[in-house]
Design brief:
The protein is an alpha/beta fold. It has six helices and ten strands. The strands form two sheets. The protein has a five-stranded mixed beta sheet with strand order 1-2-3-4-5. A five-stranded antiparallel beta sheet has the order 6-7-8-10-9.
Length: 239
């Protein structure tokens, strides 16, 4: 992972990231990119241990809040802060005394992931994953809109990114979070509703139609396109 000469980012292949050294404003971008990259490539939350980190500028503390905000709608993603030595505070986030206590407070909802090539047939496999996940989590109303959204995400990778991808989905309370991670810096562009006479460019419009929220988060190597679908949006009695 990226490192800064003053602030070292260390991982051991697990959900634990240790930051050591001195963090200042100059190092914020590298730390943010390192944490986002780790969250983008690994399903589940990441615990960042700050016990070996000193802050040279109080403003640098906001990097952890920025990362948590960026991944708030990703499937099964969160940045949890722990400080066994004590003394750390982070705006908008509890600071846990240990990794185990940080992870113990998380709701157990599950996550499904699938690695796919940029090839014809990948969208079908992604739809099958959505159907299996929604059936497992009791979200039958979201099978169809989830299939629409994930199809457009995957087809965008096949048509434009041309890189291997990872599909990830996780449940919430009557909602489904979807994400597709690829390794192209090319970001999708949404220009709103297209005229009926136009050709192409309707993929993002379809996602926008079925999702409550969606977006694209640039990563150091590629991006993650995500969407949040709510069961209430599919309930005719509430529409």
């Amino acid at each position: 992972m990226p490192t800064d000469v003053r602030c070292q980012v260390e991982t051991d292949g697990s959900a634990l990231v240790r930051l050591t050294g001195v963090l200042d404003r100059a190092g914020m971008a590298r730390v943010r990119d390192a944490l986002l990259a780790w969250l983008g490539d690994h399903a589940g939350p990441v615990v960042v241990d700050l016990s070996g980190l000193r802050v040279a500028d109080p403003a640098a503390r906001t990097v952890f809040t920025e990362v948590r905000r960026a991944v708030a709608d990703w499937p099964a993603a969160d940045l949890l802060v722990c400080d066994p030595a004590g003394g750390w505070t982070v705006d908008g986030a509890p600071v846990w005394p240990s990794r185990d206590l940080a992870l113990a407070g998380l709701p157990s909802g599950g996550v499904l992931t699938l690695d796919l090539p940029p090839a014809v047939g990948s969208a079908r496999q992604a739809r099958e994953l959505v159907a299996a996940g929604c059936a497992r989590w009791g979200l039958p109303d979201l099978i169809e809109p989830g299939a629409i959204a994930v199809t457009e995400m995957v087809n965008n990778v096949v048509a434009h990114a041309l890189t291997p991808m990872t599909v990830r989905l996780a449940p919430g309370h009557r909602l489904l979070r979807l994400g597709v991670r690829d390794h192209s810096p090319r970001t999708p562009r949404f220009a709103g509703f297209a005229p009926l006479t136009s050709t192409g460019g309707r993929g993002l419009l379809l996602i926008d139609t079925v999702a409550r929220r969606w977006g694209c988060t640039p990563l150091p190597e590629g991006k993650l396109v995500w969407a949040v679908l709510h069961g209430e949006d599919e309930d005719p009695l509430l529409g």
